[in-house]
Write the structure tokens for this entry.
Amino acid sequence: MQPESTSLGDLFCRRIPFKVPKYQRAFDWEQEEIDDFIKDLLVLYNARKINHSQPRKHFFGGLVSIKQHIPNSYTGNLYDLVDGQQRLATFTMTIASLVKAFESLANEAEVEKDTETSQAAKSYASTTRDEYLEYKEVINNQLQPRLRLTLSKADYVFFEDLINGRSPKCLRDSHKKLQFAWDSIRTNLIAKILTEISKSNASDKRKISGMG
């Protein structure tokens, strides 16, 4: 075992893809854990607004994974996630929500005929998706997008449908918990930040969000 301290960005960029083994439990975070997660991110967001040049650091906990070499794959490796599924799944939902927020900002800027902001927002949406949410894998001799995190059999289809906006049907308790986490992140984190700056035009929102 080789412990290493790394940023969330480096984790998603350097260690892909992650897969939750079938023997691991399904998604199990309750409202308390989701509320604490959102609270921590809002604290970091507010600290960034005050001092953009020196973002505050925060320890979100450890992950334990087992690296496997996968021949003939585009990435070459696979990381079985032994511990940390709840955090990584919740971060993945947060990243997906950010992508959707940037896309909404791009649409808003187009309505305002603000081409510069629209193009910047589209670029951030694309970059965030490519660097932190998805990776490319060779399927039928073509590169196709795949989520950087695959949950266990009980949740993986529901999770991917949720991330991709396909309105999946809750069939088990873990699905309800994933749906609750997804809705809470979008309502109590992303929407809360957007509401805070709702009186700003799209260009001002871009600056506040760190795009400008």
In short: Strands lie at 18-19, 64-69, 77-83, 134-139, 142-147, 149-150. The mean pLDDT is 86. The chain has one domain: 23-56+85-145+152-208.
